[in-house]
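Subject: YkgJ family cysteine cluster protein

B.,
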Amino acid sequence: MNCRLGCGACCIAPSITTPIPGMPNGKPAGVRCVQLNDGNLCKLFGQPERPEVCGQFIATADVCGANSQEALWLISSMEQATSS
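Prediction pasted inline below.
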């Protein structure tokens, strides 16, 4: 499965605990990454500043669902289930 261009769910729903340019302490779950542009595309994609965890994300049907709204719900649910 390929990422849905403009989805952005993986840049909104999960927490990221490593620094992101513009977010030195990472980002909490449910907060939009400052590196998403208005079209929900990552401004750091392919850049060395992009956090390693972001580069490790792989789009799969069980994570991304059938559309962007389902992806946001699925990833948010996983984040809730695994947060301490």
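The two ends are 30 Å apart (CA to CA).

T.
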